[in-house]
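Cross-check.
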Amino acid sequence: MRTQVAIVGAGPSGLLLGQLLHKSGIDAVVLERQTGDYVLGRIRAGVLEQACIDLIDEAGVGARMHREGLVHRGFEILVDDERHRIDLDGLSGGKSVMVYGQTELTRDLMEARAAAGLATMYEAEDASVHGFDGTKPYVTYRHGGREHRLDCDFIAGCDGFHGVCRASVPRSAIHEYEKVYPFGWLGLLADRPPLGEELVYVNSARGFALCSMRSRTRSRYYLQIPSGDQLEAWTDEAFWQELKLRLDDEGRARLVTGPSLEKSIAPLRSFVAEPLRFGKLFLAGDAGHIVPPTGAKGLNLAATDVKLLSSALVEFYGERSDAGIDHYSERCLRRIWRAERFSWWFTMLTHRFPDDAPIAWKLQQAELDYVLHSEAGQRTIAENYVGLPLDFGAA
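Predicted model, tokenized:
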């Protein structure tokens, strides 16, 4: 079996790359070790920047997103029972974000790929990448009890943080930067109306909380918890009780509780691998970088990686030019480090760190006092939150 681009991973980055390549007449096969149902069962963030929205439209899968997505022109930060609204629209020159669940985007991409009759191989076990440092790369995998080989021109590693692609790169050829945070996020999804029209970020003495949503009738809430906590220790009742303790009177009055549809714990880390290209192998999305979810950058960074990679491949096949693929890593990394910095800073601003000395909390209070009572400080949050334009970092 042969294709032009072998895409390892059928999450949103792999599927979006496949869709963009298809629209440009480039053949690609997507390999995924899990089932399609498993992929759709992964609950992830859903705050889209305008550049990501535009890219989804370019891929031809934005119709349902525009029908069902919720445009947000601001959000609130709650500190010491005082609410501060960050006016994204007014502070960023009219920009906004859209709330649309990553699961729904993945479903749209899966359906578009199936409708076009494009090759996606789910339950492709023991995938392994070969020859990417030469001229004839290929991927081997097992499916249906048989061994298979997929020859290709390029390999796109869209298989996440624990995937095979980055792990296959010689350690001497890659540099990894990582910060692991001493807490995680306990997330709960419920078919209950959200706390309000916009997201609420909470910095309380008991820890961080986030009141988010997936629709006007489905809510997503998060609690900062110690990194050693087990999911079994958190009943729905315990979750709602702790959330109430971190909210203000207004939040407690508006909170509508109910049985969870899903609960999970996500560890927080900042991670970047450099470079993102190794001969014929490219890393995109979580395979190359992870951000704390505080700044809502993970999916958006993955989407812009995919845009830069698809453009580079279109240039290669259309113009026989290596310029795009040669500059892929450099262009991605400048954007990635900007997003990493903001996500780290926003996490430091909104969370309580268990081992910090008392002076750290006083310094955080001073930082919050400046940021939330200064137009310049609020503008810093707004401009970073709505994201960078797609051509940021162009060569």
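The chain has a mean pLDDT of 95. The CA atoms of residues 305 and 329 lie 9 Å apart. Passed to J.P. for a second look.
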